[in-house]
Design goal:
The protein is mostly beta strands. It has 2 helices and 27 strands. The protein folds into 2 domains: 6-172, Galactose-binding domain-like (Jelly Rolls, Sandwich); 179-402, Jelly Rolls (Sandwich), CATH 2.60.120.
């Protein structure tokens, strides 16, 4: 699953030494930020524009990014950290660290990343080998970020963090038309109560999304449906979610020829007294959403283990519209409990038609061209969104890109 990174921090386990320093009235100094150069070298090394540290002993943060193995950054104390700022968003794939006296001791550390420099999440935890003072490489989850932080948890000799050099590898990040990575504290992001009571005091709204049914939460830096039920939620969705009928759409309605992608984890299907079991229970994309009776609809995770593409046009029994199948049902097993990468594209063609395509893990699983099924092709830009039926699911890294 892709992530966004911005800082690297290293922290040593040095609680006892910190106590000694503090008792003497001597707190470790803040390390000043140190400017550097370039964004990206031809070798794929991301150049660090600024380096800073939570503490130092005179061996400052800039020493760890100066290309000189003869200098180092050193800091004392649990949580001592070194942060690298790339100056812009980068797609990060790996990290090289050279620890001072790394051939004589092992250092335990975390790697944390951030897009804004304040909210970090850990993407790697491990230790050096203790057999070399040269670079050792660490693979990271594919991540887009501006900051990377290395946090030392101490070494096998003492509580110092001492890093000779740091190198980060990756490429400049892709600029999306729209993206949401749902970072921050676990909380309610939006719900149907706010949609249907827009002037009520204390409602919870999102700048990106609106929910005309169900509740949207942030959970562990991902988006979550909450536990699906049929209860009409109150202002904070504390009495229930109504996410057995989950309907989330973007506030923006200018998405035309685009690819919509996100990471999806389908935990389980449920039923409620309001929503009995149906073959179509699962997860579906909305593309070119004009209104509740006009859109393209791509089913990726269904209870009957199929995918299908549909079009909804005005006039008919289903919320004022009628669904037309653009494809037949195509076998596709739902990988319950596993993260999967899914994508749908919508593209206007020169002959006036519209092509909708659906991908799972980069593989095309369904595609169809609308030449006027049930009504004119939907060529106007619209909203994008996710529909969930009787499904407890999480999703992350929602992006919209121009085709």
């Amino acid at each position: 699953m892709k992530q966004s990174i911005g800082y690297v921090r290293v922290s040593p386990c040095a609680a006892s030494l910190i106590c000694l320093l503090l008792s003497a009235g001597c707190a470790p100094p803040e390390d000043p930020a140190t400017p550097a150069v370039d964004e990206l070298s031809t070798s794929g090394i991301i150049k660090i524009t600024r380096a800073s540290a939570s503490t130092n002993d005179g061996n400052v943060a800039g020493n760890a990014v100066d290309g000189n193995m003869g200098t180092r950054w050193s800091g004392l104390g649990m949580g001592a950290s070194l942060t690298a700022d790339f100056g812009g968003m980068m797609s990060v794939r790996s990290l090289d660290l050279a620890w001072y006296r790394g051939d004589q001791r092992r250092t335990t550390f975390d790697v944390a990343v951030s897009s804004d420099g304040s909210s970090f999440r850990t993407v790697y935890s491990g230790s050096s080998s203790g057999t070399t003072a040269s670079f050792e490489s660490y693979d990271l989850p594919d991540t887009t970020a501006r900051y990377l932080k290395v946090v030392s948890k101490g070494n096998t000799d003492n509580l110092w963090a001492s890093l000779s050099e740091l190198q980060v590898y990756g490429t400049p990040a892709v600029t999306h038309l729209f993206s949401d990575s749902f970072t921050g504290t676990d909380r309610l992001l939006a719900n149907e109560y706010a949609y249907w009571h827009p002037t009520a005091s204390g409602i919870v709204t999102s700048s990106n999304w609106e929910m005309n049914s169900g509740s949207l939460f942030s959970l562990q830096n991902t988006a979550w449906s909450g536990v699906p039920d049929g209860a009409g939620p109150n202002i904070g969705s504390t009495n229930g979610t109504d996410s057995s009928v989950f309907r989330m759409m973007s506030k923006r309605a200018d998405f035309g020829d685009v690819a919509v992608s996100f990471s999806l984890k389908n935990d389980q299907l449920v039923t409620t007294s309001r929503t009995p079991q149906q073959d179509w229970d699962g997860i579906h994309f909305w593309m070119r959403y004009q209104a509740e009776n006009s859109m393209y609809y791509a089913s990726i995770n269904r209870r009957d283990n199929t995918v299908i593409l549909k079009k909804k046009v005005p006039g008919g029994p289903t919320n004022g519209g009628t669904y037309y199948n653009m494809t037949s049902s195509i076998a596709h097993t739902v990988p319950y409990g596993a993260w999967q990468k899914v994508k749908t594209t919508a593209k206007n063609n020169a002959d006036g038609s519209v092509t909708i395509s659906l991908y799972a893990e980069g593989v095309l699983v369904a595609s169809a061209t609308d030449t006027g099924l049930g009504g004119p092709p939907i060529r106007a830009p619209g909203k994008v969104g996710i529909r969930g039926d009787n499904c407890n699911f999480r999703f992350d890294d929602f992006t919209v890109d121009a085709l």
